[in-house]
Amino acid sequence: MTAPQSIALTIAHINDTHSHFESTPVSLSLDSTQTRVYANCGGFARIASAVKRFRAEADQKGHAFMLLHAGDCFQGTLYYSLFKGQANADMLNQLGIDAMAIGNHELDQGNGPVADFLDRITFPLLAGNWHVANEAADKEKRVSEKPALLPYLPEQKRASVMIKTIAGRKVGIFSLAVEQMAALANPDHDTPFLPATEIAKNTVAYLRSQGVGTVILLSHLGYDKDKSLAESVSGIDVIVGGHTHVLQGDFQNIGLDNQDPYGYRVNDTWIVQAGCHAQAIGRFTLTLDAKGRPTHFEGQNYLLLGRSLAMDASREHKLTASSYQAARDYLNQQQNLLILPSDLTLKQYLQQTYRPRVAQLESDIVTYVPQRLRHVRVPDQQGGSDVAPLVTESFLWAAREQGIEADFAIHNAGGVRVSLNAGPLSAALIAGSLLPFAIDVIAYRVTGAQIRNALEGAINNATDNGVIGLGSGSFPYCADLRYRYEAWQPMGARITQLDIKRGQHWIAIDDERQYVGVSSSYTAQGKEGYDALQTGRRRSIGLSMAECFMQYARAQDVLQLPDQPLVCYLASPQQGDSCWQS
């Protein structure tokens, strides 16, 4: 019997789930009157339900089916803070992932946690531009010896690949991750990430030489890089992407954004990405001809919702029966939503295995917040972040409590993730939402000139003012250090005032003198413009970012803002002469 002239392959995909195993409340606008309701959205148990539905529908239609993850499952919530990669491995295994790309947050704490993750997963982790062949032989944990890792192959100058045969057609999958991995995360020095473009070309050529008709890139490069790669590399049929949290599709029907259409096409390449935080799932179907070449693409993203609705995120204010039914009728009509229950087996596993320790921290109230504290990265018309200075102060306070004679602290704005609402502040919110990155705090010794250069470099990186930045998260906030930044000045002269606190007084920094600073290990290693902080003399204070803030917060009756801002960020000369009183 001859094979049919065409077959169909359905692929579901998620990305940047960041340990969001439980559903989260989202605010939805239901109609032109801007009626708003809150619904439970996403979570791994609801993803499991969607995947089961998609598999069943694919089986009924005679389609092949795969489930892909485009990277960044680590970090993000209290589940990662408490259990690191173990919980992610368990939960992803139960979803039945066919393959996952490595993301930058998998490497926030070096190769060790990835090695542990590779020991636990039952699916391959693709990392086609990760050069691990020269990894030191004497390491306690070596990723290069893990069979679940599909890395760069230096002799062939290409990525390792997966090739699946479906009804006689070969489908090839490979992966590429952000080229600036060393700037964003902490891969071991002997396992660098290489530029993507040539590796992509070589890998596509290899796959075609093996008779592969369909080529899929599982990418953690970011949306714009995916587009540029599709421009410069021919032969990639679909890029399943992540890293930049893009929810493709028009979701204005529920009050969300309208971004590029799902399956954005560049040349002959379709590009897809499915948001973040396990709130959505993408699904597309490829029609493959007799040679396995895709002739048709169809699909979309789906936001995953539960059936319960409320008027507020706390779910204390319920909808009336008529309002609930009207909202439910509206949501049921939307083609880009999936309203379905959580998978009971996965939900029970999470509740029994990992939920109890999370619940303990949720009931642990460390202090109270008297008024809402706003967090922004780069200061705007309303000023800078209220939260980041308190977090930075906690690093300095914790270091001094450990007996370290620290002079100042600096923290990057991107390390702080949320604003704080008025009311009780729990340990769970601190470790799971406010400071979810499980990163140590480091003490180091630098000169005044290095401080000055680090501040300017970080701001330039955050604002693209003179350098190509990696995002606004590098913007610096301080404790016992204040600075004035004038964006219109030439490079190297934009920090026009830099003071350090001595007792109750501020004095000018001496560029030649050495000072002891405290920062997250991410910042202290010179990431994202903080190159000047890279010094040989450094040590961990023995606490993570969340632990510093918890201890600091417990020592405060309430969280109070500093008397005056320590950051004077001036984008133009018209903004004024001074940001504080001397």
Automatic annotation (TrEMBL):
Recorded protein name is Bifunctional metallophosphatase/5'-nucleotidase
User: Where do the TM regions start and end?
Assistant: none
Asked whether the UniProt record includes Endoplasmic reticulum among its keywords, one would answer no
Q: Which family does it belong to?
A: Belongs to the 5'-nucleotidase family.
Report the residue ranges that make up the Calcineurin-like phosphoesterase domain in this protein.
Answer: 10-246
Q: Which residues form the 5'-Nucleotidase C-terminal domain?
A: 380-534
Q: Keywords assigned by UniProt?
A: Hydrolase, Nucleotide-binding, Signal
